Amino acid sequence: MSTIVVTGGATGIGYAIAARLASDGHHVVLASRSQEKLDRSAAKITTAGGSCSTHALDVRDPEAVSALFDDLPEVDGLVNNAAGNFTCPTVDLSFNGFRAVVEISLYGTFLASQALARRLIREGRPGTMLNIVATYAWTGAPQVAHSAAAKAGMAAFTKSVAREWGPHGIRVNALAPGFVATEAAVQGILADQEAQDHMLDLIPLGRFAQPDDIADVAAFLMDDQSRYITGAVFAADGGRSLGVSMHRGAARTQASGSTEHGRTS
Question: Cα separation of 59 and 108, whole Å?
Answer without folding.
Answer: 5
